[in-house]
């Protein structure tokens, strides 16, 4: 039965469609209709339309009159811009953390738990699980700075980052292990207070993703 539950249904449509875009289930250039998403979720077109407006504002889709929307492909220039912003935010956050004496014990514990999750995902060849853990890992590095603006900027990039990660990690299964090794190096430098090592490791890590597009 198709229903319209207002904001709740719109949020479901938004999360569902965005997840498909990030995972590659909806590929760049693909046309998707409000009716299709509504049918998948058992909701009317109205909340789906509201979800599409949000995704259009985030530049993940382009609305097409009376047809639905086209999934925006991620271009090489967009990937470059996303990676540049990531480097800026993460470098600045790390510098702030180092200046304050390093991450606290609670953050360090969460980083170690996250790395265990990454290792398990690598062992299972689970790209989706690794993408989630990868995203959380970098979010923890930023959270350690206790800078709410840095966290806000990171959140604004999050969807694009996850989309780029998924594309890169699906190119070659070996990329999972390589990314995990990078994260181990980053964590060791971050916790150990090695500023230069962290900066070099971050640059090398982000350069891997440039070739994903």
Summarize the structure in words.
The chain is mostly helical. Helix content is 74%, strand content 5%. It contains nine helices and three strands; from the N terminus they run αβααββαααααα. The chain has a three-stranded antiparallel beta sheet with strand order 1-3-2. A hairpin with a 3-residue loop joins strand 2 and strand 3. The protein starts with 6 loop residues before the first helix and ends with a helix.
- Total helices: the number is 9
- Number-wise, the strands total 3
Structural class: mainly alpha
Distance between the termini: 40 Å
Which percent range describes the beta-strand content? under 5%
Strand and helix layout:
Layout: H1 7-23, E1 31-32, H2 34-41, H3 45-57, E2 61-64, E3 68-71, H4 76-99, H5 105-124, H6 127-143, H7 148-171, H8 174-192, H9 195-210
Antiparallel strand pairs: 1-3, 2-3
Helix pairs in contact: 1-3, 1-7, 2-3, 4-6, 4-7, 4-9, 5-6, 5-8, 6-7, 6-8, 8-9
